[in-house]
Design brief:
The protein is mainly β. Among the domains are: 172 residues, Lipocalin; 56 residues, no CATH class. 2% of the residues lie in helices and 47% in strands. Strand 23 and strand 24 form a beta hairpin. The longest helix is centred in the last third of the chain and has 5 residues. It is globular, with a radius of gyration of 22 Å. The two termini are 30 Å apart.
Length: 413
């Protein structure tokens, strides 16, 4: 399933590996022998990262802080186009562990982050507390049968991107030692057995502070970005090889070297996209099938700043750009010719088009973020505190391609 956004394309450096809530002691797994195999890497999370939503084949999950001191799981059913608490109990108040939607928050911890993989919903708690490190909890699609399948050790944290790898997960795990030195590694984790295997370090030099920037994945390869004074270059680390390393990958180049002044390249899902600014040419390549398209930049007024291609779903792209008069805008392109369809979207804080799930003929997208009074605040002497939640809409692909917005889905009361 492709995940995409109609927002302005983010610079590749902005997607470099993030460090989240690390502790202060060294720990970790040992490097292991990785046999050559052709297991494909799959996209399992929006933007390949932990977030507040997770798409399943039948709907979309959201984690939301409805009341003080806890979170709740909500679910948008694609068939009924309704959003509900992930709870089947009549007249439930959704404020205790007897409710399937309820997620407790111990003191010192913040919200959860989600993804859906192999028929299970996963909730990651990324904030360590004194009695417990960050952990990964697995549950059935209805929120029952919860089990902590991975608890990180002291000094470890979830960092950056994650992928499916057959029945296992590819995770970025960061560690910080007592001297404040950090290291990020790619690990293979089996949620059925709890086994962790450290694949390779993302440090460019042993003991060095500079890390490789993981930008995406396609087929059997992880895709990294190298940046220096000479320019930027994507390269692939192929997990089909025995004992893959960053050093091997830097000879397996993807696309040309670029500087973002005359040439701009991005990796989006399974696609490699280029914008030749000097020549006014756009292109994309499907890294799984090898299919390629190249076409000229559509005729524009000349006042727009063009950022390049934005993958929406399937092989449907938009031209991402902005102007001083209209702000950010996205022009849908014809998938066959690359020509303008004449359909523009103007994403704003009040009316966005952030596509989060693809259900075949229909799309679910985030329209905006709304607020409501935070429940339970009076017990703590608080007044005027609010909680935030997403507002969604569903639309057919045919209507979306014609510029017809979807119908908003009400937030459950």
């Amino acid at each position: 399933m492709n995940r995409s956004t109609l927002a302005k394309i983010v610079s590749p450096l902005a997607l470099a590996a993030m460090l989240v809530a690390c502790g202060s002691q060294p720990s970790g797994t040992e490097m292991v022998v990785h046999p050559a195999n052709d297991t494909p890497i799959t996209h399992i999370a929006n933007y390949d990262m932990l977030g507040d939503t997770a798409a399943s084949p039948e709907g979309l999950y959201e984690v939301c802080s409805v009341r003080l001191g806890s979170c709740n799981l909500l679910y948008v059913d694609a068939a009924t186009r309704q959003e509900t608490y992930l709870c089947a109990t009549p007249n439930c108040t959704h404020d205790s562990e007897s409710c399937n939607s309820y997620l407790p928050l111990e003191e010192g911890r913040y919200g959860y982050q989600l993804f859906f993989f192999n028929g299970y919903l996963y909730a990651a708690q990324c904030t360590p507390i004194e009695s417990q490190g960050p952990y990964l909890m697995r549950m059935d699609p209805d929120g029952t049968n919860r089990e902590i399948v991975l608890e990180l050790e002291n000094g470890e944290c979830f960092s950056g991107m994650l992928y499916g790898y057959g029945d296992r997960l590819l995770l970025q795990i960061s560690r910080v030692d007592e001297n404040g030195n950090s290291e990020t590694c790619m690990e293979i984790f089996d949620p059925q057995t709890g086994e962790r295997k450290r694949l390779f370090s993302l440090q460019l030099e042993p003991g060095g502070k500079e890390s490789a920037s993981l930008m995406g994945a396609a087929g059997t390869s992880l895709i990294f970005l190298k940046s220096d004074e000479e320019g930027r270059q994507y390269y692939k680390v192929d997990l089909a090889r025995e004992n893959p390393t960053l050093e091997q990958g830097q000879t397996n180049l993807l696309g040309p070297e670029f500087d973002e002044n005359s040439l701009y390249c991005t990796v989006q899902g399974d696609y490699f996209c280029t914008y030749d600014i000097a020549a006014g040419r756009l292109s994309w390549e499907n890294l799984l099938t090898g299919q390629k398209k190249e076409f000229s930049l559509p005729q524009l007024s000349g006042e727009e700043t063009v950022y390049g291609l934005a993958l929406l779903y399937d092989d449907q792209f938009a031209l991402s750009m902005s102007s001083s008069e209209k702000g950010s805008m996205n022009l849908l392109l014809n998938p066959e010719t690359g020509e303008s369809t004449g359909v523009y979207y103007y994403p704003t804080r009040e009316s966005g088009y952030d596509i989060l799930a693809d259900f075949g003929d229909e799309l679910l997208y985030k329209v905006r973020t709304d607020e409501r009074p935070l429940e339970g605040q009076a017990a703590y002497g608080l007044v005027g505190e609010v909680s935030y939640h997403n507002v969604y809409a569903m639309v057919s692909k045919e209507d979306f391609q014609s510029g017809i917005p979807g119908e908003e889905i009400p937030f459950p009361e």
